[in-house]
Amino acid sequence: xxxxxxxxxxxxxxxxxxxxxxxxxxxxxxxxxxxxxxxxxxxxxxxxxxxxxxxxxxxxxxxxxxxxxxxxxxxxxxxxxxxxxxxxxxxxxxxxxxxxxxxxxxxxxxx
Amino acid sequence: xxxxxxxxxxxxxxxxxxxxxxxxxxxxxxxxxxxxxxxxxxxxxxxxxxxxxxxxxxxxxxxxxxxxxxxxxxxxxxxxxxxxxxxxxxxxxxxxxxxxxxxxxxxxxxxx
Lengths: 111, 112
Known about the structure:
The complex is a heterodimer of chains A (111) and B (112).
Chain A: E1 4-7, E2 10-14, E3 19-25, E4 33-38, E5 43-49, E6 56-58, E7 61-66, E8 71-76, E9 85-92, E10 99-101, E11 105-110
Chain B: E1 4-7, E2 10-13, E3 19-25, E4 31-38, E5 42-49, E6 56-57, E7 64-68, E8 74-78, E9 87-94, E10 102-103, E11 107-111
Parallel strand pairs in B: 2-11
Antiparallel strand pairs in B: 1-3, 3-8, 4-5, 4-9, 5-6, 7-8, 9-10, 9-11
């Protein structure tokens, strides 16, 4: 069964810390993996990863995909209270328009 | 630029009632999606529409129907609401499959 597992389920850190969020999946031959940030309402898009080993960066956030080991990580450096959110990972089922989402990691950053 | 607009934002129904959740996007996207989000379950795909005139089932389609009215609008209908359908419903759109999806703010639906 296609499955996406995120860890940890929740995390509490202090401002300035660096965090690493994990996404592992049991889906082969997919085309893309997406990361989203969800605060109070709609998930907002962060990264789309299609190739193994190529890091994508946006400010303090970065992400990389390992297609051989079937996982992706999302790093956030110098965390701020505004980073507090649920971070979602989603993997495309091959040859479809369907994405399987993980249950998310809830990050809380304390001032 | 509104993006993806969902109505209503909140709704309370009694078991057995029907209702339609509306979704419209103004980004000229081809693909549209309906998800539900429950605590501890993540986002689960109910139905999607790859392009105008087509719809297909996702992971959890039972108890729901959809209509892709035109390129902009994709509605979700509950014919006979059940308490198990209490959830937050999100509509999303993307330019095509395998493109990032843009989400609406959600509809919080409670069924008593």
